[in-house]
Amino acid sequence: MIHLTPNAIKAIGRFMRGSETPVAGLRLMVSGGGCSGFQYGMRLEAEKSEDDTEIEVDGIRLFIDPFTLPMIDEVRIDFIDSLTHTGFKFDNPNAAARCSCGQSFSI
C-alpha cells in the first residue's frame, strides 16, 4: 500500500490538471543513483504499461513497475512547500539508510 498525505494529493492533482497532454496516472519509480544507491522518481503518464501494478489512492491512479513495487511498499509520500524546500518527500520504512535530502536511499 502507498500512502499519500493530503498535501501530496493536492499537489499531484494540480500537476495532473495543469498537464498539456492527457494523463492517465502517476508513475512511481525507483532507479539506481543518488548518494545512497537508489533514488525516487515520479512522472505523469498517458497510459499504464502492461507489467505495471495499478493502485488507486484517493482518486489518484498510481502506476508502479515490478522492480519498484517491493521497494516502496508502505511508503508515505508528502509534499513540502517551505522556504528551504519545495517538493515531494518520501518516508520509506523499507530503507535501511537514506540521505539527508530524502531523495535517495539504500535497502
Give the percentage of residues in beta strands: 35-45%
Q: How many strand units?
A: 9
Overall 3D geometry?
Answer: globular
Read across the widest sheet, the strand sequence of neighbours is 4-5-2-3-9-8
CATH class reads Mainly Beta
Spell out the helices and strands N to C: EHEEEEEEEE
- In CATH terms, the superfamily is HesB-like domain
Total domain modules: 1
Describe it for me?
The protein has about 110 residues and is mainly beta. It has a single domain (about 5-100), classed as Hypothetical Protein Aq_1857, Chain: A. The protein is built from one helix and nine strands; from the N terminus they run βαββββββββ. It has one helix at about 5-20, and strands spanning about 5, 25-30, 40-45, 55, 60-65, 75-80, 85-90, 95-100, 105. The strands form two sheets. The chain has a six-stranded mixed sheet. Strands 1-6-7 form a three-stranded mixed sheet. The longest helix has 13 residues, at about 5-20.
Short description:
With 107 residues, the chain is mainly beta. It contains 1 helix and 9 strands; from the N terminus they run E-H-E-E-E-E-E-E-E-E.
Strand-helix topology:
Elements: E1 3-4, H1 6-18, E2 25-32, E3 38-45, E4 53-57, E5 60-64, E6 76-81, E7 86-91, E8 97-98, E9 104-106
Parallel strand pairs: 1-6, 2-5
Antiparallel strand pairs: 2-3, 3-9, 4-5, 6-7, 8-9
Question: Key features?
Answer:
1 helix, three-stranded mixed β-sheet, 107 residues, globular, Hypothetical Protein Aq_1857, Chain: A, 9 strands, single chain
